[in-house]
Amino acid sequence: MDGETFREAVAGAKATELDRLGSNKLLIALTDATLEPTAVLTAAADSEHAAHTTFAGWADDETDDAARELFAWLADRERDHRERVLDSLAALDGDHDPADGGAMHTYLRAREDAVERVAAGTVGRGLVSDRTHLQIVSFFVNEGDERRADLFRDLRAETEAELDRGVALLDDLCADEDDWERARMVAEYVVQIAYDDYADALAGMGIDVKPVC
Q1: How far is 114 from 118, CA to CA, in rounded Å?
Q2: Taking CA atoms, which of 44, 46, 61, 187 is between 20 and 30 Å from 137?
Q3: Is 69 exposed, middle or buried (0-12, 13-18, 19+ CB in 10 A)?
Q4: pLDDT at 205
Q5: Rounded to a whole number, what is the largest CA-CA distance in the chain?
Q6: 94: pLDDT strictly greater than 80
C-alpha cells in the first residue's frame, strides 16, 4: 500500500456516501434549508473554525515530529480560511462568532495516534471538505457572485493540498499493513460520520437523502 492507493481505496469504499455529500442537497442540510449567502458563509466559517481548533489541539500534544509540524501548518491554514470566510461574511453585514464542535470533530479529537490523526484529519475530512467546497462554489455561481465563488475555489484547492501532504506523510508513518488498515478504518469512518449527519439533517426536514432517479 502507498499513500495514493490508500486515498483511492478510501474514496472507492465510500463512493456512495461521497457522491451524496456532493449533491445540491448538502447546503440544505448545512443551513437548515436557509439557502442564503449569509447562512452558507456562516456554516462555512463554523466548519473552518472547528478544523482549526482540531488541528491546533493536535499540534500542541503530538509526539511525532513530522505529524506535529503538519498539524501546526494545517491549524494555520484553517485559521486563515476561517478569517477569509468571516471577512466575506462581514462584507454582507454579517456578524458571526464561529461555533465549534460537531460529531466529526468530536471523533477526530479522540484520535491519539499520529497515523490515525493524519488519515482521519487530512484524508477523511479532506474528501468531505472537497464536496462541501464544491457545493458552495456552485451556490455562489448560481447567485452570480463570482468573487465568493472564487474564494471557495481557492479554499478547495488549498484543502486538496492539505490532503496531498497528509497522504505523503502516511507513506512515512505507515510501517506495515496493520498501520494502513488502521488508517483506512478511521478515514472511512470520518466520511461515514459526515454522511450520517447529512442524512439525519435531511430526514429531519422530510427530505430523502437518496438521489431521484
Answers
A1: 6
A2: 187
A3: middle
A4: 93
A5: 52
A6: no
